[in-house]
Design a protein that fits this description.
The complex is a heterotrimer of chains A (about 400), B (about 80) and C (about 450). By secondary structure, chain A is of the alpha+beta class. Helices cover about 45% and strands about 10% of the residues of chain A. Chain A is built from 17 helices and 10 strands. In chain A, the strands form 3 sheets. In chain A, strands 1-2-8-5-3 form a 5-stranded mixed beta sheet, covered by helices on one side. A 3-stranded antiparallel beta sheet of chain A has the order 4-10-9. Chain A has a two-stranded antiparallel ribbon with strand order 6-7. In chain A, helix 6 crosses helix 17 and helix 9 packs across helix 10. Chain A starts with 8 loop residues before the first helix and ends with a strand. Chain B is an alpha+beta fold and about 80 residues long. Chain C is an alpha/beta fold. Chain C folds into 3 domains: about 190 residues, FAD/NAD(P)-binding domain (3-Layer(bba) Sandwich), CATH 3.50.50; about 120 residues, FAD/NAD(P)-binding domain (3-Layer(bba) Sandwich); about 110 residues, Enolase-like, domain 1 (2-Layer Sandwich), CATH 3.30.390.30. In chain C, the strands form 8 sheets. A 6-stranded mixed beta sheet of chain C has the order 3-2-1-7-21-20, covered by helices on one side. In chain C, strand 20 and strand 21 form a beta hairpin. The chains are: A alpha+beta (about 400), B alpha+beta (about 80), C alpha/beta (about 450). Chains in contact: A-B, A-C, B-C. The interface between B and C is medium-sized, with 29 and 35 residues.
């Protein structure tokens, strides 16, 4: 067995200069499906190995199983289910799912379609008469924020407050003490504390005056798995609030950007609205909102692709690379909504498959459909657009478009 | 419309039951029961559910789908 | 072009293929043949009238009352240009002359034939008792429609004879519909024959917890009718009786091979022997080149299971063998595919998704490797002489792909590395199937490759 060290590629991917187009670097990375890094962590970049690991019970999501603790970010006393293993993960996720989806609440997401369409159309109404719009700030961000606030029971008017915290938090996810200023981590930790405190206040209110929202239900419902503690509710709400809009904004923006880069497809979507269903799946493969699962841990030794990853190792899963793997997808760098074989990794796989996936899908389908239907002759102002800093939750910071 | 689910592929992700709750229902936490001939009024939801299946286990009649697509192209 | 390739091209263009059996395997084979570029004449023969339909919903969605029995017509993958001879069974196969005889006297000539005649329900052995009003088997749409109606009428008690998968699923539906139900099983518990004693015990608890009157180690000796010929009572081997107005005979299936008597093929109660590429074997054990077999009637050697001949009544097996057979019917030896998929199966009962990969009967020990039996969320891993050969999950299906890989790579049993949710007292126990089987040690292989054209086995160890 040969240990392959590939210094250089991962740092280049994480470097901001690669944000607009990391895909050629992913292709380089895939030459070593399981790549040992200088710091002892392993980077997985090929589809078969990624799916094998995502279904491997020896892969832990609980960073307390890492031999070397992370440099601060991600350490929590009450991790949300995203960062837990079975059986705690399963129990927490079931308790949260009770109020969001099947089997207990099957019709909720599908039933939100009319309201979501109305929100989207309200936002597009507001764009009328403007020559230039920012797809991110004017459309792709406010829409999922409105939806997740409504669902969770977080006052929409508090958005300016939690937006700052969430930004700082996301900014600290991939904190690397070797290259990043320590203030970034401090800001992230501070933001987390403040966001938790804010959510704690909301949970307390819901105990006494419950409404129809998920926070209230988590605070008051006693299902077969019992009730979450307030700390657990805060962690869950924290996760859903961040994931609920920091990712969907990328999916919608990436969708608009990709269509503006493929005008014939945009035209086809206008004539053939049903295409949106497969088009969003293709977006989840081709330009997914989440590129990397940064920390998983080997609970015991894991052998994959003839490499043994020792117990306690940090493992980084390059999902977006897997969805572009030519050993799995025909012509993977082509945007092709007609693709029949499209078992992408846009939402991950296995027990941690994206909790809000069905909601994100509908949000993207509705937003992109209405944008294409109603915005007249949209044109990109700059290509590539400026990107957000994060290589993990990757998407444009702004997307300026001229219309009319 | 005609539908069949390869339940040996199905891992109980329930994405279909979110998106087409009248045609796909979870029986307990993980077991899927579905309507093999859902009403045409549910077509869009069923197509959404089929596309969303993380293991691509849902087969919707390709002949019907193609006819519908062909009609949409003509109109 | 060599003469062989030329002959194949001519066959693909102008040849005659007959598929006997118009259910899942027959339909998928017909579609695959056209996908593979076969443009010659294609005939599909089926004993049931009407388009091919799906059977698993018959013991589930149909009996719950949700969907009607006639709603399970199979969706098509593509258009199939074929002649469908439906409603008439095949009665004979003349391999020398290359023709299929039909029960109505017609003869259909072929260049290559695919046998996919499947299984029928094993009827209650006493004909007069089987004819009583209220006695059912569940295999066809008509069977399911009849039982569905009877369950909707609200019977006083349903007796299920046999606690295999179908019997247990129907018992589950009866409880869901609040219908009193008695299950009589000759073995020590439900599912024991397929999954062993440990799962049998768990299944017993599950049935009783849902209010099933489960009687194990008993045989139903006779069914008794009233003067109008309606079922009213069953007599059991322990001397007890069960008053029931509906009985479901769930004693497994009989392979539809009688029509092949005299064909010279290797036909037996477990089906027609074939190679892993679905080519039928004759009585001498010679592989034929123009007779293929797929689905429930096929009995094929599986390299992972020491090349033993395995017959599977599994949905996905029918689909995959149909595809393999269709491919191999229109390819030369060098391009043929072996069917190496690890068997997989599912059952839905009492709110639990039960799934398996591998062959659980090919095992000497079993151990719970993940989850909790008490919560009915767990993975049971089966091993044979120190390697993993199967796994069964209860509401834990998302881990099954991992166990499939362990089977394909002949991974050590018990699995040596701990997982976060491994039960602390996990110890392998004897798997304990009724009627101990004598398994000898044979070749151990690993399966490699992903796409059908690259799936192959290699010897694991010298």
């Amino acid at each position: 067995m040969t240990m392959t060290r590939t210094p250089g590629i991962l740092p280049r991917i994480l470097d901001y200069s690669a944000r607009a187009d990391p895909y050629p670097l992913y292709a380089e990375l895939r030459r070593t499906p399981v790549a040992l890094q200088e710091d002892g962590s392993y980077v997985i970049s090929t589809y078969r190995e990624l799916t094998a690991l995502l279904h491997d019970p020896h892969l832990s999501s609980d960073i307390r199983n890492l031999a070397h603790p992370l440099p601060g970010a991600g350490r929590e006393d009450n991790p949300a289910f995203l960062n837990l293993d079975p059986p705690e993960h399963d129990r927490m996720r079931r308790m949260a799912m009770r109020h969001f989806g099947p089997p207990h609440t099957p019709g909720l997401v599908d039933g939100m379609r009319p309201d979501m369409t109305a929100v989207v159309n309200g936002l597009i109404d507001g764009l009328q008469g403007r020559k230039q719009i920012d797809v991110v700030d004017d459309f792709a961000y406010p829409f999922p924020v409105t939806v997740i606030c409504h669902l969770l029971g977080v006052p929409r008017e508090d958005e300016p407050r939690f937006h700052q915290w969430v930004e700082a938090l996301v900014d600290a996810i991939d904190y690397n003490p070797a290259v990043d200023p320590p203030e970034r981590l401090q800001k992230g930790m501070q933001a987390r504390a403040e966001l938790r405190q804010y959510l704690g206040g909301l949970v307390e209110e819901r105990h006494s005056r419950p409404g129809d929202d998920i926070l209230s239900k988590l605070a008051t419902d006693d299902g077969p798995d019992g009730r979450m503690t307030d700390e657990q509710i805060i962690s869950t709400a924290n996760l859903l609030l961040i994931a609920g809009h920091e990712t969907t904004v990328n999916l919608i923006t990436n969708g608009v950007l990709t269509l503006l880069r493929h005008p014939q497809m945009l035209q086809r979507l206008r004539n053939e609205p049903g295409l949106i269903i497969r088009l969003v799946e293709e977006l989840l493969r081709y330009e997914p909102p989440v590129h990397i699962i940064p920390w998983r841990a080997a609970y015991s030794d894991i052998t994959i692709a003839d490499t043994t990853i020792p117990k306690g190792s940090q493992i980084m899963l390059m999902l977006a690379s897997g969805s572009r793997d030519p050993d799995r997808f025909h012509d993977p760098d082509r945007f092709d909504p007609d693709r029949q074989d499209n078992q992408h990794l846009g939402f991950g796989s296995g027990i941690h498959l994206c909790f809000g996936g069905p909601l994100a899908r509908l949000e993207a389908q509705i937003a992109i459909t209405e944008f294409v239907r109603r915005v007249d002759n949209p044109r990109l102002v700059a290509d590539p657009p400026p990107y957000r800093r994060s290589p993990i939750l990757r998407g444009p910071l702004h997307l300026l478009v001229e219309q009319g | 419309m005609r539908v069949v689910v390869d339940l040996s592929r199905c891992q109980g992700y329930a994405q279909c039951a979110f998106l087409a709750p009248d045609a796909f229902r979870m029986h307990g936490e993980e077991a899927l029961m579905y309507d093999p001939s859902p009403d045409d009024a549910q077509r869009e939801q069923v197509l959404r559910a089929a596309a969303a299946c993380p293991v691509q286990a849902i087969l919707v009649d390709r002949l019907e789908g193609r006819d519908a697509a062909a009609e949409a192209m003509r109109s | 072009m060599t003469s062989r390739t030329e002959a194949l091209q001519t066959f693909k263009r102008e040849g005659r293929i007959v598929i006997v059996g118009a259910s899942l395997a027959g339909l998928r084979a017909a579609e695959s043949l056209r996908d593979e570029g076969f443009t010659g004449s294609l005939t599909v023969i089926g004993d049931e009238k009407g388009e091919p339909y799906d059977r698993p919903p018959l013991s589930k969605q149909v009996l719950t009352g949700w969907v009607p029995a006639e709603a399970t017509t199979l969706p098509r993958r593509r258009e199939v240009d074929a002649q469908w001879l439906l409603g008439v069974p095949a009665s004979g196969l003349d391999v020398a002359a290359g023709l299929v005889r039909l029960a109505d006297g017609r003869e259909v000539p072929y260049d290559r034939v695919l046998i996919a005649t499947g299984v029928r329900a094993r009827p209650w052995p006493h004909e007069a008792e089987a004819a009583l009003d209220g006695v059912f088997v569940v295999r066809t749409r008509e069977d399911a429609a009849g039982l569905r109606q009877r369950l909707a009428d609200g019977p006083d008690r349903v007796l299920i004879i046999g606690a295999g998968f179908t019997g247990s699923e129907i018992a589950s539906i009866c409880r869901e519909r609040d219908i009193p139900v008695t299950v009589a099983e000759l073995g020590p518990g439900p599912l024991v024959g397929a999954l062993g004693a440990m799962i049998g015990e768990i299944a017993s608890e599950m049935q009783r917890a849902h209010g099933v009157d489960l009687r194990t180690g008993v045989k139903v000796t006779s069914l008794e009718g009233d003067e109008q010929g309606r079922l009213r009572r069953a007599h059991l081997s322990d001397g007890s009786t069960v008053d029931a107005d509906v009985a479901v005979v769930a004693l497994g299936g009989i392979r539809n091979t009688e029509w092949l008597q005299g064909s010279g093929l290797a036909v037996g109660p477990w089906g027609i022997a074939a190679d892993s590429g679905c080519r039928a074997m004759d009585l001498n054990g010679l592989i034929t080149d123009d007779v293929f077999v797929a689905g429930d009637v096929a009995r094929c050697p599986h390299p992972v299971y020491e090349y033993r001949f395995i017959s599977l009544e599994h949905w996905v097996n029918a689909v995959e063998q149909a595809e393999i057979a269709a491919h191999n019917m229109v390819h030369l030896q060098a391009d043929r595919w072996p069917h190496l998929t690890i068997p997989s199966f599912w059952s839905i009962q009492f709110g639990v998704n039960i799934k398996s990969v591998g062959v659980p009967t090919f095992a000497d020990e079993v151990v719970i490797t993940q989850g909790s039996v008490a919560e009915r969320r767990f993975v049971a891993t089966y091993g044979y002489q120190g390697r993993v050969t199967a796994a069964v999950t209860f509401n834990n299906a998302k881990w099954l792909d991992h166990y499939r890989k362990l089977i394909e790579t002949a991974a050590p049993f018990p699995p040596p590395c701990p997982t976060p949710d491994q039960p602390v007292d996990a110890k392998p126990v004897p798997v304990d199937f009724p009627g101990p089987m004598l398994l000898a040690q044979g070749a151990t292989v690993v399966v490699t490759g992903h796409d059908p054209d690259e799936r192959r086995v290699t010897a694991a160890r010298p």
